[in-house]
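User: My collaborator sent over this chain with a note saying "see what the structure looks like." That's all I know about it. Can you take a look?
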Amino acid sequence: MSNREGNGADGPPASRIAHSRRAREIRKDGCITRYPTQGGFTRDSRYAAQEIAPQDHTRFLRANAESALFGELLTLLRPKRGCPSGYFQDNATLRGELWKRIQCLKIDGYVSVNGMAITHKIPSLLIDDTKYLPGSARAILYDIGFETLSLHGRDIGTIQRKPVARVEAAGRAAVRQILAGKPDARDPYRGFTDYFKALQFHAHANGMQDATDMLDRITRDDSFGHPVTGPLEAADFLANDASTLNTHLRRCREAAKPSRWQRFVGTVFKYRPIPLLLRLLQR
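Assistant: Without extra context I'll predict from the sequence alone. Here is the result:
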C-alpha cells in the first residue's frame, strides 16, 4: 500500500463532511471553526494579554497558520468521556474538513494539511486506511517509525514513498527497543522523548487527555501549567504490542453502541406510531 493520500488532502473535499463537536464559531457563511474568522480577539498569556485588533486578525492567523490548523484538528478530534469522538471514520474526510477550515480562516496559501501533519510529527494523518485513524495503535507506530527513520537521516520524501507497513515496522522495532532498554532517569518519558509530539496528539485523539485547550497557541501563548500526562500514558499503552491501547479502544467502541432501550426508542421514533394512531382515530 502506498503512503500517499488522495488528491483531496489540500483541495476541495470530495465527500460529505461529518460534523464536529464543540466548535466555537458558527456563521451564516457556513463556516464552522474553533477560531473566529474576523473581528479580532484577546490572546491570553501568563504575563500580559495580547489584543489582536480586527485589522490584524487575518494577518495574525496567517503568521500562525500551522498552529491555527493544528488547533482546528484538535477540536475536530476532541475526545468524549475519555474515548475517541468517533465522528470521523476515515482520514480523507478529516483532511477534507481541515481544508474547508483553511478556507474559512483565509489561511490558504500559508499552510497545507500535508505540511501541518509533517511539522507536528503526525504523518499518519495522510494515510487513506481506516486502520490508521488518529489515536489508533497502528497510527502511533507509523508516526514513531516515520520519526525514527527521519532521525536516522532519511529525508521526508523517501520515507513517504516507502510502503506503510515498512514504516510501521520501524516504529514497532523502535518501541520494542525502548521498552527492552533501561530508561534514563533524566528522561521524563522513559525513552519516548523523541516521539513526544506524536504521543501527545494520539493521546488526545484516543481520549487519554483532552489537549484541545492545552495546545491552543492561537488564543493563548502557553499551556498555563496543564499537566502533560497524555504522552506518558500513551507510551505505557504501547507495551505488549499495544494490547492495553487496543483494549481501551475496544471498550470505547462497546460503550458507544446503543443500549437495548436506545435501540427500542429509536425504532419507535423511526416508525412514529403515535401520529399514525391519531390519524386512524380521526377517521
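A starting point for your reply to your collaborator: The first strand starts at residue 25 and ends at 26.
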